Amino acid sequence: MSLACLGYRLTPAEALCAVTLNAAAAVGLAERIGSIEVGKQADLVLWDAPDLEYIFYRFGSNLVYRVIKKGQQL
Asked: Which of 20, 28, 66, 68 could be bridged to 44 by S-S, CB 3.0 to 4.6 A?
């Protein structure tokens, strides 16, 4: 996602959409995953960051605070 922002000039919001909802749609799973909606599988990454832009421009830094897969914390 950092490379998408820095190398291809996508905005952080565009990069996030590309790797979530658009990626799910590309493999035919947009009805089940890819966005935070009632009825969809809860796969989330929570970052320790003040805003979305901070995540993508801290290339090489691990800002992951918590990972949730199928509604369960890993």
From this structure: 68
Q: Is 17 exposed, middle or buried (0-12, 13-18, 19+ CB in 10 A)?
A: middle
Task: Give CA separation, 42 vs 6, 50, 67, in Å.
Answer: 29, 22, 10
Residue in 6, 12, 30, 28 with CA at minimum distance from that of residue 20: 30
Residue 66 CA to residue 58 CA, distance in Å, equals 17
CA atoms in the 13 A half-sphere facing the CB of 62: 3
pLDDT digits (tens, 9 = 90+) for 17-45: 999 999 999 999 999 999 999 999 989 99
What is the C-alpha separation between 74 and 69, in angstroms, rounded? 7
Tokens 């009825």 -> residue: 39
**Structure-token match 């805003």, residue found:** 51
